[in-house]
Structures are given as structure tokens and as C-alpha cells.
Write a structure and sequence with these properties.
By secondary structure, the chain is mainly beta. It is 8% helix and 33% strand. The strands form 5 sheets. Strands 1-2-3 form a 3-stranded antiparallel sheet. Strands 9-6-13 form a 3-stranded antiparallel sheet, with no helix packed on it. This is Alkylphosphonate utilization protein.
Length: 112
């Protein structure tokens, strides 16, 4: 038996191949295998509340954060607009108006 992925629309296990497309007989959803592989390769980053983050989102800092190499503190409630997701431990790359370019951990922000 082949190892075809479940339907992304209804999670049915009865998917089948029709040429270059994958088809779900229960909900009639069609998608390509390239779309399936691209979806698996996307970076998944969640905020402190478990909400999915994406490039361009606005987030708010949920805790006072010490800025490394500086005596200043990033205050709770600071809004950061236009974030960019990156690989690594500090998985949010952003520009904060009063601090400049900075990397943040997603566990210390929440989506606004």
C-alpha cells in the first residue's frame, strides 16, 4: 500500500493519485504533491499562546527583556510590527523603533 498523505482539507485517509494530483474522494479536494512538500518545509513558529506566526505579523512583548550588551530593557507591551521569521533559537527578526534591529524568541511575544 502506498504512503499518500491525508487530505489537508478534511484529514481523510482515503486519498489517491490522479496523474500529478492527489484527490480526496470524501470532500473532492485536489492538490499537488509539490504543494504538500512545500507545506511541510514551511517554518512553523508559535507565540507564547500557541498562535501561528507568519512574516509581517505584529506582536507584543509579554515580559520585560534585558537587551544584551546594553543597560536598557525592552518593556512589556512593546509592539513590534512587520516581523520576519528565521531559523534558530531566536526565531523572530525585527526592527524595534527605540532599539533598532533585534532578534527575539517567539516564547516571549504574543500575536496582536
Amino acid at each position: 500500500m502506498s504512503n499518500l498523505p491525508n487530505c489537508p482539507s478534511c484529514s481523510s485517509t482515503y486519498t489517491y493519485e490522479d496523474g500529478s494530483l492527489l484527490v480526496c474522494p470524501e470532500c473532492a479536494h485536489e492538490w499537488s504533491l509539490e504543494q504538500e512538500q512545500a507545506a511541510e518545509e514551511q517554518l512553523v513558529v508559535k507565540d507564547a499562546n500557541g498562535n501561528l506566526l507568519s512574516d509581517g505579523d505584529t506582536v507584543s512583548v509579554i515580559k520585560d527583556l534585558k537587551v544584551k550588551g546594553s543597560s536598557s530593557v525592552l518593556k512589556i507591551g512593546t509592539k513590534v510590527k512587520g516581523i520576519r521569521l528565521v531559523e534558530g533559537d531566536h526565531n523572530i527578526d525585527c526592527k524595534i523603533p527605540s532599539f533598532g534591529a533585534m532578534k527575539l524568541k517567539s516564547e516571549f511575544v504574543k500575536k496582536v
